[in-house]
Records
---
Amino acid sequence: MKLRNKQFLVKQNFIWNVLIILIGSIQFATFYPNFVEKLYSTHLYVGYAQILRWLTGWLPFSLGDVLYILIGLYLCYSVIRLIKICLVRKNGAQIWLILKNLLKIVVVAYVWFMLSWGLNYHRLGIAYQLHLQVNPYTNDELCVLRDSLAVKLNSLRQQIGQDSILPSPDLITLYWQAPTYYQQASKLYPFIQYHYRSIKNSLFTPWAKYFGWGGYYNPFTGEAQIRADMPRILIPYTVLHEMAHQIGYAGEEEANFVGYLVARESGNAYVAYSCYSELYKYVYNELLLRNTFPDATPALDTLVRNDFKRVNRFFMQEQNSIAPQIMDLYDVYLRANQQKNGINSYNEVVGLLIAFQKKYKKI
Ligand SMILES: [Zn+2]
């Protein structure tokens, strides 16, 4: 019995030593973005993520969501058990054992998260790959971008048609087509290759309004989950954004920008319109933050304005008091992962767009 206890202790110490070495190595790697970019993000991660998508892509439901539900249930069970032991049995040794197990689960989850995706937050990223000079921008540059986006939006809306209601393509079709747009874009940008589709409806869609997201990537299963009940025009760009996460662009502004590069080359007016509508809102937000409202801008087409109003109405109807709290938590998560502007990181795509427009003279 004593020998078995000793073996157990040796095994536990070994596991903790391995975990500590892994955490140290991960932290060390985060100081070397060049190393992360060249060894991890564009090599090791690419192969690993493709295997994950190959394994989970064929499943008609999100395996990651099922795992999240199971983990949630296990955590609830552990907390109830802990409370019971604290209040009823008052067994200190058992309480310590449960806490130690929970801590081990948290540490393993952290190590797994960082090795299976999180290190991508510390890469050099898309600006490095495209040799873009991303600098602070002026209000005038912001206005030039907004005007260019407005012209694009008006033109794309005309290509979609004159009907005041936008088409509503089938979700599966949108998921199915998205990888072909990546294939198309990779001819121009060889580093944005996407293989093995793994895009699912989120099982949490009925509660999504309380979480405030349109999609999310599960780094443990490689799946991209999409909120299926959003206005359909938001779906194509959300899918391209999540796919960018899948291929290793962890930062929100990076995923937005890669989604833009792909939508731009898609040759599909509906997909491009979905993307430019979102980008226009980011630029508009920036102008609002700076209290800048230029007079002489190309007006948005009536059809475009009506589309915007319809989307706004959808989100106004589902406003609630829980979503802002969840967003605050998400803000903390982003700040802890190299996204110094937290939830506003999505808006940082504006800097990338201005740099891109300056370099390539197009948007
Ligand atoms: Zn994202």
---
Amino acid sequence: MEKNNCIKCDINQCKYHYKAEDYCSLEQIQVGTHEKNPTVVECTDCKSFVLD
Ligand code: SF4
């Protein structure tokens, strides 16, 4: 597992979290939304999340 310096993340519960530091270990991630019309930050999701 390698740290991706371009993707900071503090979701420790994710399988792809780097753990030692708050970064993602994937090469790229998919960001999306669960809303029809996203207007605030809470509307956005990391679609690459997998429960650890
Ligand atoms: S896949 Fe998404 S939620 Fe998981 S560590 Fe990477 S950026 Fe964070």
